[in-house]
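User: I've been trying to design a sequence by hand for this structure and keep getting stuck. Would you show me what you'd pick, starting by listing the structure so we're on the same page?

Assistant: Good idea, let's start from the same input. This is the structure you sent:
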């Protein structure tokens, strides 16, 4: 919960935060309106976004560096929220450049969170290199530093390929300063040496990809620096192999078996319902809809900013009965479990980045998108995991509910699957509650979950069956 968008005071920190939010909104309008003059316009947009993020990060660092007795903790939280909004805008930029292809983008998200890059000689060297190679025809350079979601590599060159799919060359860059010369006017010329590494072989002159990624063999890690470089290389190889994986095919990646699966679902989206409740919330401050038993989406609106007090009033509580949210027919020992999803999700502190479409790209009016930026509109989803379990059981699956920590519940889903040869297998998806996130943040109909389970189980069973058939006979 944030009040960043509701800042209306006149103190210096409040004015600074309002200015940052206006700049995020201005860049967001430029991106969504596609107001660019060619590739140079895209590059200028990206540099402007990076500069904004660096400025917000510097302000946040100064505030956090104050003694606790003088630190403005409200400003710290508001600056964090401003920074996250700017990073989400960078995520939207990345999703657009990747053509909304999550199969290409998600593998690059599987790493720890990367902080905002500070403006220094080394980071400026990467910018100069990206611009130089772009001018040589390598493609458009997406700087990973402007995103929160891309956590592997330093930059990706996106190259359109006419009638074919675009290519994406992801690179890790190691920058070394080899010399500095001070001019008479006091400016400094800096010479760099940059080593580029990728999971694929590429032409050093044109940047064209020459080979598919190959599994990486284990190499000795004699020093901490080499060990770090080896981990980075293995992550890049793993991500590149996942990007080219085929549905239902097994690949051996990093010592394990990876089964590709792409869900083809005809389930509908609920964008129309969401647009309707957003409009209604502007009239009454609150509106909600339920696309299925156990799922409720709510919109809270205040032109002065949705504060924590407004969010905690509990306007949605009467709707839980009206929308058939709770289950009254649970087995002994089980209970209703409500999970609240803020939309967009909270800042992830560790682990994999959320692989969902950034709210800047939601199919809702731009007015609503920038009301979210300003903190005037808050969207919330409430899900009862007991109802999710009931739905999957009605589809013929066995669902196991187990405790996962003091405040969390996990779902494991098991089903009987037949492969192409007519053999029947029992397959299980552990930790299925994480897939519920895809339903919620994708605003999909609940039938999507059944399609998801069927695709994942069926792809795994068939993929493993084919892989076993292809193994050489022992002896």
């Amino acid at each position: 919960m944030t009040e960043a968008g509701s800042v209306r005071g006149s103190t210096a920190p409040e004015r600074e935060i309002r200015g940052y939010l206006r700049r995020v909104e201005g860049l967001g309008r430029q991106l969504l309106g596609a107001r660019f003059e060619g590739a140079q316009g895209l590059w200028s947009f990206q540099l402007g976004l990076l500069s904004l993020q660096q400025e917000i990060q510097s302000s946040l660092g100064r505030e956090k560096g104050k003694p606790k007795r003088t630190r403005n903790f409200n400003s710290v939280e508001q600056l964090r929220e401003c920074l996250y909004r700017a990073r989400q805008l960078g995520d939207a930029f990345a999703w657009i450049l990747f053509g909304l292809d999550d199969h290409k983008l998600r593998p690059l998200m599987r790493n720890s969170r990367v902080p905002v890059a500070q403006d220094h000689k080394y980071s400026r060297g990467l910018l100069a290199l990206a611009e130089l190679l772009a001018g040589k025809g390598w493609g458009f350079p997406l700087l990973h530093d402007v995103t929160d979601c891309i956590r592997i590599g330093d930059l990706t060159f996106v190259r359109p390929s006419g009638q074919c799919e675009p290519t994406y060359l992801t690179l890790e860059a190691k920058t070394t300063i080899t010399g500095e010369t001070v001019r008479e006017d006091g400016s400094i010329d800096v010479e760099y040496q940059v080593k580029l590494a990728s999971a694929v072989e590429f032409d050093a002159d044109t940047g064209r990809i020459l080979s598919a990624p190959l599994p990486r063999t284990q190499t000795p890690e004699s020093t901490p620096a080499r060990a770090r470089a080896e981990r980075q290389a293995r992550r890049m190889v793993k991500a590149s192999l996942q990007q080219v994986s085929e549905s239902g095919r097994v690949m051996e990646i990093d010592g394990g078996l990876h089964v590709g699966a792409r869900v083809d679902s005809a389930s509908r989206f609920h964008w129309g319902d969401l647009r309707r409740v957003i409009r209604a919330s502007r009239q009454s401050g609150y509106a909600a809809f339920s696309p299925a038993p156990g799922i409720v989406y709510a919109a809270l609106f205040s032109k002065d900013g949705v504060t924590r007090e407004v969010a905690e009033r509990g306007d949605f509580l009467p709707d839980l009965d009206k929308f058939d949210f709770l289950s009254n027919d649970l087995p002994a020992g089980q209970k209703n479990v409500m999970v609240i999803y803020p939309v967009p999700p909270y800042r992830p502190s560790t682990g994999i980045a959320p692989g969902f479409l950034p709210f800047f790209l939601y199919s809702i009016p731009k007015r609503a998108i920038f009301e979210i930026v300003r903190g005037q509109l808050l969207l919330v989803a409430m899900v009862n995991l007991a109802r999710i379990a009931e739905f999957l059981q009605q589809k013929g699956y066995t669902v196991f509910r187990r405790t996962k920590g003091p405040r969390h519940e996990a779902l494991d889903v098991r089903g009987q699957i037949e492969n192409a040869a007519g053999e029947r297998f029992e397959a299980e998806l552990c930790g299925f509650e994480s897939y519920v996130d895809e339903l919620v943040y994708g605003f999909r109909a609940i039938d999507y979950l059944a399609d998801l389970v069927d695709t994942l189980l069926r792809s795994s069973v068939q993929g493993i069956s084919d892989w076993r058939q292809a193994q050489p006979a022992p002896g």
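That's my pick for every position. To get oriented when you compare it with your attempt: The radius of gyration is 25 Å. Residues 1-7 have pLDDT under 50 and may be disordered.
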